[in-house]
Amino acid sequence: MRADLPAIEAFGDRTIARRDHLDQVRNQLNSTRLPRDAFGYVPGVGGKVHDAYEDFVTQCAEATEMASEVVLALGRRIHTAVDLIAQTDQFSAEELDETLHPGIR
To answer: Quick check: pTM over 0.85?
Structure first.
């Protein structure tokens, strides 16, 4: 089995780059926050609507932040896997060379 390490590495880079996009989305979500009186002064209603809206924006921003952290961790682990595969390949090549040509290095 062969692994295309440069392609896997590029995938890891693209995965990490998605974090930047998610951070932009989170910032845009945070910029949609509105003042408490944005939904009017209807007694008992305006505050409830604002609270529901604020809760929605907060939860979306938090979910986006968590997704951002996940894609960063995933990208880093992809890079770690590439490094480990490369090390394993190098070790296997050295072992095969030693098996085929004992005592020659």
So the answer is: no
